[in-house]
Fold Universal stress protein.
Amino acid sequence: MKKILVPIDGSERSMKSLEFIKGLFPKDTIELTIMHVQELVFMNGMMIINEFENSKQLGQRIVDVASERMKEYSPKTYLSFGYAGEEIIKKSRDDDTDIIVMTKSTKRGLTKMIGSVATFVVKHTKCIVMIIPE
């Protein structure tokens, strides 16, 4: 069974990765983890507790919506806080992920073509990264 990690940001664009998986992988052939990384803002080196709670609730809603879309795959969900690229790499290593599936950025330019987070992931991971066009 292949382990697939799908980082999402809650946008419809990022949710297209889920539809791609449905079209390519039968549900009994993969172990799916849906991940969301919430970045937090610090002021004077301190995080405001309300900001953390709000971020946690928003992140949980995002992974819950994605999980519902993929319920036939019985996905695991994972919510993390920090820089998205670093957190995705850490999770993929911890879980011994085979494939990371991400949706490309809407920005233009060589580095921006797939997005800064996707570029970071491609440069730093040891597994396959699939970038899905919009």
Observations:
- The chain has a mean pLDDT of 88.
